[in-house]
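[job 4471] stage=fold_predict status=RUNNING
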Amino acid sequence: MTYDEKIQKIVDYIKSGEKSETNFKVGFEAEHFTVDKDSLNTARYKQKDGVSDLLEEVKELGYEASYENSNIMGLRRAGNSISIEPAAQFELAFDAASSIDELFENYKQAMEDIIPIFEKENKLLLQVGYQPKEKIDDIEMIPKQRYKYMYDYFEEFGGALAHNMMKGSCSLQVAIDYKDEYDFRKKYFVANAISPFLYSIFDNAYIFEGKVYDKHNLRQTIWEQCDKDRTGIYSFSFDDDLSYETYAKKI
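[job 4471] inference complete, writing structure tokens
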């Protein structure tokens, strides 16, 4: 496949995401740290009553599980899915909905089922931006080959805080529909323009590597020092002629 053919395939993929305004939806996924209720230490994947065991219990709520080398990695049922991040952060993602209120109701309903399972094992699900107590070097990775490749790549080519992103951070991520290339450009512009303000308004990373973090916007700092080729604000983000092709070439 030639370079131009690769670019066109990516352009076609982005274009295939276009929606009419009447069908616009929004989706989101929320990441959580699983910690011991008393000590706030991170629950390990393989420990007794750890994240692996908890996922097996959650599966009984009617989820279909996916495995890698007999290790449970994710769950899926109608409306939502569960996966785990590199240091066993617990991620709950939802199918797109027509309103934020609908998404929030779906989240509450799912958590009403999930939280009692965690509480039974004296575990909490925390929504904070950074690992609440321990240092990332003290927390092992989950046995997922993709994350092993990612970790090794960052070891050689990543920024100073790339491993902190993988093992120490959590976030809430949003997916937003677009109508056409112009709408894509407009929303991409706005998202990049307001991101520093959103980092500030919703800043909830109070601890960094076991110590009180006395600055602000820790997660922004982490992402800026993660992978210079893939993270941060791209140079063309505010260009008037930003196109699907420009984005495809960056990819």
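[job 4471] summary: The chain has eight helices and nine strands.
[job 4471] exit 0
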